[in-house]
Design goal:
Mean pLDDT: 74
Structural class: mainly alpha
Shape: elongated
Distance between the termini: 93 Å
Number of strands: 2
Largest sheet: 2 strands, antiparallel
Domain Amine oxidase: 66-117
Pfam family, one: Amino_oxidase
Order of helices and strands: HEEHH
Number of domains: 2
GO molecular function, one term: oxidoreductase activity
Number of helices: 3
Protein name: Amine oxidase domain-containing protein
InterPro entries: Amino_oxidase (IPR002937), Zeta_carotene_desat/Oxidored (IPR050464)
């Protein structure tokens, strides 16, 4: 039984918490003892402050509004992929898209955000061309100076 449980443990040398069990594939009987701590499948960084806490306290601290709750009149509250902040774009299931919590939702959101980013890139290229033209015109209008030794006297 222990050998089977260890088969579902994953390890990475690059993480601070280098070994974890995929809880979807591993039986709690193999690694969880009543009264010996909490068992949640989540990512918390840094995790040390949460290790001694019971499940209820961890949930109270980190899962206040973990999911979008669909309901009548809520769709307008979801954010668009293009934000009012210039060149800040969002993607994910929490943004406006047609498939709420599914695999398709974040994918569609990513595609919408990518389209906004491409449009912003075109705007930046046009702006760069305008700036180059302005700098070129400034150079043509600037008085020419000579940098030989006699002109410095």
């Amino acid at each position: 039984q222990l050998r089977q449980a260890l088969g579902f443990l994953l390890r990475t040398p690059d993480a601070g918490f280098s070994c974890f069990a995929d809880l979807a594939l591993t039986s709690p009987e193999d690694y969880y003892g009543e009264g010996q701590g909490s068992l949640l499948q989540c990512v918390l960084t840094p995790g040390n402050p949460y290790m001694p806490l019971p499940n209820d306290e961890i949930i109270r601290r980190v899962a206040r509004q973990s999911l979008y709750r669909g309901g009548p009149g809520k769709v307008p509250l979801r954010t668009d992929q293009k934000t009012p902040v210039k060149n800040l774009f969002l993607a994910g299931s929490y943004t406006k898209q047609d498939y709420i919590d599914s695999m398709e939702g974040p994918t569609l959101s990513d595609r919408q955000a990518s389209a906004y980013i491409c449009n912003a890139g075109e705007e930046l290229v046009a702006l760069r061309k305008q700036l180059a033209a302005f700098e070129s015109q400034e150079q043509m209008e600037a008085p020419t100076t000579t940098n030989d030794e006699l002109s410095l006297v």
